[in-house]
Amino acid sequence: MRIRNGVIAMGVTVASFGLLVAAAGAASATTPTKGAVTGVITGAHTFTLNPADTVVLGELLRPDTPFYGADVPVTGISTVRGVTTVTTGFTFLPLNRANVTTTFTVVLPPPPP
After folding, report:
1. Percent helix / strand / coil, the chain, rounded to 5
2. Disulfide-capable partner of 88 in 5, 31, 72, 106 (CB 3.0 to 4.6 Å)?
3. What is the C-alpha to C-alpha distance for residues 77 and 82, in angstroms, rounded to an integer?
4. 46 touches 87 (CB < 8 A)
C-alpha cells in the first residue's frame, strides 16, 4: 500500500512539473509588447492599464519617472468590468506617482545568441 501511494505521489509531482514547463513555454512564445504603455499606479505593486494598451505576463516594465531606474516584471493581469489591473513583482512602484497617469517603457529581453 505504501509503495502504491508513493508511486501515485511521484506521478502527481512529475505531472505538476510538466504543466509548469508547458505553461512557461506558452508564455515565452507570446509576442512581447512594443514601446510603452500607460496606466495609473494604484498601489505598491499594481496599476490600472490604459484600455488601448496591452502587456504580457513576464515582461519587464520601467516606470518613466525621475530618479526611478528599476525594472518590474508583470506577474499578474486581471480584467474586471473593463478595467485591467496589472500586478508587478519585486521592487515597489514609485508611490509618489499614485493616482497619476504614468508611462511605462517595455524593456525587451536581449536577443538569443
Report:
1. 25, 30, 40
2. 72
3. 12
4. yes
Q: Which residues contact residue 107 at a Cβ distance below 8 angstroms, ignoring those fewer than 6 apart?
A: 59, 60, 61, 62, 71
41-82 residue pLDDT tens: 999 999 999 999 999 999 999 999 888 888 999 999 999 999
List the grid coordinates of 104: 511605462
Place of cell 512594443: 34
DSSP state of 26: H
- In angstroms and rounded to an integer, the radius of gyration of the C-alpha atoms of the chain is 18
**Neighbouring C-beta atoms of residue 85, cutoff 10 Å:** 16
Rounded-to-integer distance, Cα 102 and Cα 110, Å: 25
